[in-house]
Amino acid sequence: MSQPLTTNSVLVEEAAADGDSSAAAPPLFDYHRIDQKLLQNIVYDALVWSTLNCLLVGDKSVQRSGRVPGVGLVHLPLSLLPGPFPESHWKQGCELAPIFNELVDRVSLDGKFLQESLSRTKNADEFTSRLLDIHSKMLQINKKEDIRMGIVRSDYMIDEKTKSLLQIEMNTISTSFALIGCLMTGLHKSLLSQYGKFLGLNSNRVPANNAVDQSAEALAKAWSEYNNPRAAILVVVQVEERNMYEQHYISALLREKHHIRSIRKTLTEIDQEGKILPDGTLSVDGQAISVVYFRAGYTPKDYPSESEWRARLLMEQSSAIKCPTISYHLVGTKKIQQELAKPGVLERFVENKDHIAKLRACFAGLWSLEDSDIVKKAIENPELFVMKPQREGGGNNIYGDELRETLLKLQEAGSQEDAAYILMQRIFPATSPAILVRDGNWDTGHVISEAGIFGTYLRNKDKIIINNESGYMVRTKISSSYEGGVLPGFGVVDTVYLT
Amino acid sequence: MSQPLTTNSVLVEEAAADGDSSAAAPPLFDYHRIDQKLLQNIVYDALVWSTLNCLLVGDKSVQRSGRVPGVGLVHLPLSLLPGPFPESHWKQGCELAPIFNELVDRVSLDGKFLQESLSRTKNADEFTSRLLDIHSKMLQINKKEDIRMGIVRSDYMIDEKTKSLLQIEMNTISTSFALIGCLMTGLHKSLLSQYGKFLGLNSNRVPANNAVDQSAEALAKAWSEYNNPRAAILVVVQVEERNMYEQHYISALLREKHHIRSIRKTLTEIDQEGKILPDGTLSVDGQAISVVYFRAGYTPKDYPSESEWRARLLMEQSSAIKCPTISYHLVGTKKIQQELAKPGVLERFVENKDHIAKLRACFAGLWSLEDSDIVKKAIENPELFVMKPQREGGGNNIYGDELRETLLKLQEAGSQEDAAYILMQRIFPATSPAILVRDGNWDTGHVISEAGIFGTYLRNKDKIIINNESGYMVRTKISSSYEGGVLPGFGVVDTVYLT
After folding, report:
1. Same domain, yes or no, for B409 and B275?
2. Both B343 and B407 in a single domain?
3. Which residues make up the binding site for ADP (chains A, B) (predicted)?
């Protein structure tokens, strides 16, 4: 199992002994100015560290690497050094994590709100429609989930125009990169311990990260609450997964630290091997399941046939703890994010006025396409907006002229298709220089970054067992190919350097 | 940094609770009888474990993988489960380690013995000749090495005919697989913790392994003895190295645990960047060096030009601690192994009669080609012998008809070329069934195994600071392609299951 490296190197000790402590030197963020030989040493060490500590993925160019472990491995594309990030914004994001955790839970309990808010989306988007069908069935049978857990990640950017931390999206299903975030933190702390004095960077300014341990801890505590010592945790996985080692790492933590067995199954396998026992227990391949941990099921691609939808329904109907429930999943849709941003809506779910103010401060403008004033404004000034589909996955956002044309077409059509999209205030994020390392090579460029703050949550009826901010991950992308709004897909992983 | 996994799994706990403790069941060594589904699960878990814990090498099919870290990675070819090994033989091998450590040191001090024993080899083998030249120069200048250290590995096989543990060879330079041995131990212990009850195997019967920590510890203590806090450890490396992560892991241990910096250089780079300061200190690229840790220099391929020989001489002349010195290197030659096996020779170096008996018990028959009686016997019965070159590296051994023909040719020629070889008693090792995993695929077969026991040694003048057995590594190979004597090259890595 990998551990972040924290020991100071001799270099740093020497620096301290020489009196040229890195705390005194101004941080060197213009990474283009780094001496080339030094830079090559740092890159080399980063590649070694990544291998020794399993900051690895399956290489796309190796066909089997998403199915067979241990073959076709390559280091994760990464940012060599952390990007600058204001400490005040960082604290703001961390403070928001437990507030968002609680908000997700509260909204998930309001079945009517979810159904009504998504009613138009239902007609336009087949995937959301199928999720809503399952949700409806649960409402009909009055399914209660006493034990509810969330591993959520709220993603933020800093808008350069307003100098504010703005939420891009909230991930409530298959929240990934907990391990990768932790390993990146370990890597950057290790590199700064060795080379920080040459760069004026102090490894203590890279925030600590506990996301992966906390994820495993939350799953383990949920397993305990379910209270069946013979039950296992079911990890729902995709058929191909090049980021499988993060999932395996969590399973290894569950086994070694928490003594809990986990099994991996695709939705198709769960349909074939799963059933609900008379007492409500989910059984898969003869194994009782206490917790269903989704690392698949968030995209239509995961449901190629009715088989997979049957599996999803089966799990939802069972007594197993779902991470997440269908309700939590729906709370993570863009449409709900947009509904919550409407005046007066947050107040329905949150009593604490300070919390409401904090939540609202990070909401970017979010509008339905039913709002004709905003649509008109967007057609006139498309550069101020981004059009986003309801679904997860990224990469399908619409900008600029295409946004204008799409809106005009939708107006002509007069169809329900507009409900498949929302309009969002276009964020103009700050850029910073970075060194990006991919496939053993490095390049420099100006990047924009999106910081995701993890929260874990577990409650049993009225008892809140876990509600915390657990860690973070940062995605960084060359800004020249950035089209605004959110990052389409992701570039490389990163951390932050608090300024 | 990776850690072997030792926690028992839920499966094993359940097995104990059910009363079907693995201690009671007879070990299942006929691995061909394992249920196919179970086997696939074990293979899958082994591949995952290997990736999470850096049991990885550069893939030969990826060109850059020996030069650029983090790319073209693949799990190490491995034996899925440990092979049976008698506990009495195991204890014998472990007891021998400190005795061999001390023997190597004592022999290294007898420059005349080394020169005389290798005098005929010198004429026949250019590589040994160059090593002897450096050794001669050190004798001429009366170079004293007060601080001497060894990371040695003695490799053994069990001869089925005599039921005895026989030494195959002694490695005194670039002794590798310390990390790989430890990781294999961690892997097998982890797999047996999970699946042992189905196989009647108990993870406690796989011996503990501390080889890599002890290697780093010995280097760190040598660094301390040298007593220059600003000095670094120099790791002498090959230009291409697909097993580089083991070396990097040791450097990481030195940095993180012992706060010692290490640098990596090829012999060519050392020739370009190295010099000896007036006080005798070795300086490479401006960095004072306290310990030279050879992970190259053991094969003629590492010396493509005079440049590399200059580098070797430079290091030997300096005050840096050499792991190993030129003397230690020479002690590891086959010819010295053969000399030590001659009647009365051990007694020149070892006082303790019990130690002498223990050493002699593990010596296979070893003869010079000057011994005409033995040569005659080998021509008549080539199947009882193996002909080995003096040099390290394996793969060039001669057996059967070719052995007979080579001996006849050498007799005719009447040249000095016979001094390049020795004759060794052919060992007939026991075979056992095994499951070999390579490139994500597995296959079964009958294998023979060679167990290497590591020893670490450090002394400063009369003070012995370290002299221990530190761990082990096992190499396993399909027996059908086995031609006798020693393993030509190696197949896959393994551990042992004590019976």
Report:
1. no
2. no
3. 334, 388, 393-394, 396-397, 424-425, 427, 450, 477
